[in-house]
Please model this.
Amino acid sequence: MDAGVIVAIVVGAILLIALFSFVGRRKRDQRHEQRRLQARDHREEARVRSARATRAEAEAEERAARAKKEQALAEEQATAAKRERRFARSKEQRAAELDPDHSRR
Model:
């Protein structure tokens, strides 16, 4: 083989290697860019969902606080009603004791 042919084959092989390397890098860069876009979309969705979760937690805490307040009010009213009922019974008993027309049992 003549030296010119050998040089041409070597140059051609180098060019093919460079071309394959360039194409490979290009495809890898495209895959990386696609993954970056997907990652950005995932991050955006995560931010939106996190904001929704934060809002839902705040609403739940607010509802729980209102329920706790209502429960305390109900307990307070029940206690007051029991006290009033005891007072009414006491007064009824005292009235019965004082009333000369009330038959004693």
Notes: The chain has a mean pLDDT of 94. The chain has one helix and no strands.
